[in-house]
């Protein structure tokens, strides 16, 4: 009976997610965060993550479900995964640093293979490396299964960023105690949503982390701090700078899709033209699919492949005489590959853990008002509508989103004025071709809360593995970041010696 009930509720949750996507009308899917591009994650799936080097050791920490209350259920625990690489560590007796990577809205497995900043710099720092998985993702699930946790209204209430960074603090202190590393300085690192967590962690737990590298962290994309159209304005700019003709083709294609769809057999024509795996029930699903592709290639326009160039070469290189939608499809094939069919749910799979988990997070506290409104945009008008967003979230989870909570809890308004005196040792790194940089910190706040950006950079590029093909500007960005972290650690060691001497004198 329990198995039947579990299956029923699981199907109900998935049905609700599918329904929410279907009734979204003209509200396009919110662009995904994440340090790694979806196609990179898929590649890691195929190649299997079990082939990680033997230097990576997996552990589980008995984590408290609720760090902030003392109700009976607050003391419930779950097993939270973390991974340690001690190959390069200089040891506790040398107070060698600890580099900690904050997992975000996906399994930690992807980060172990896809994030390079820690392993690339571990020999230089003689650092102990730690990777911590975010609660409710990967293998760090309360209640035994993600479906059970998310369908339980009480349990999913503990699925918050504040609980997540408290998890990180508990694990870091546990590891420092286990390794007798009391005096080892900790630098926390994260990308995208994980970058936001890293910055917020430094503000909330300065006694645990000496500093933070927040890569592509759009901490200002909340509560009207950044323009709603900022994200898609940069996507448009990226395409326009890459190819004016590609930009124009995309801009004109939306009306063409509507024109074909209005015919009696229009959806069938579009389904055949774009080789959809299932017949389209509405033209919006095709538009949302294309919107997601254009967002992804702009956000993750990494060298040396530069996927935005790939899709525009496909569009511009279609045979002479090809109509607008034919050219658009040629771009899809160039980027996605020549497949037998194309799944319109490719970017919004209802059974994907990131899709399910991030749905909850955006429907509770991570409300990022992203929309299309710009006259110069290559996208059709689709402004973010908070009233509709709230209605959808209430229909799915029975909760009302809190669009002002992030700035209430972590701050954001008058950032420079407030953090100039209050904060220290945070690097906000960005690439200006990343659409999420529109919500990033792009100016130095103080001598030690600094913005490091590159004009040609893309999402989280600086924390990906180093390659021989890396352009000079990327190498320089990483070198600047490492130099800043080295200065933090050097000052810490000076302070450590000074306070040790004072302690000896006073005793």
Automatic annotation (TrEMBL):
Q: Where is the signal peptide?
A: 1-25
What keywords tag this UniProt record?
Answer: Glycoprotein, Hydrolase, Protease, Signal
A biological-process GO annotation: proteolysis
Q: Which domain of life is it from?
A: Eukaryota
Which InterPro entries does the entry mention? AB_hydrolase_fold, Peptidase_S28, Ser_carbopepase_S28_SKS
MF terms from GO for this chain are: dipeptidyl-peptidase activity; serine-type exopeptidase activity
Describe the family membership recorded for this protein in Swiss-Prot or TrEMBL: Belongs to the peptidase S28 family.
Check the record and name the PANTHER family matching this protein.
PROLYLCARBOXYPEPTIDASE-LIKE PROTEIN-RELATED (PTHR11010:SF110), PROTEASE S28 PRO-X CARBOXYPEPTIDASE-RELATED (PTHR11010)
| Protein name, per record | Serine carboxypeptidase S28 family protein
Q: Where does this protein come from, organism-wise?
A: Gossypium raimondii (Peruvian cotton)
| Lineage, uppermost ranks | Eukaryota, Viridiplantae, Streptophyta, Embryophyta, Tracheophyta
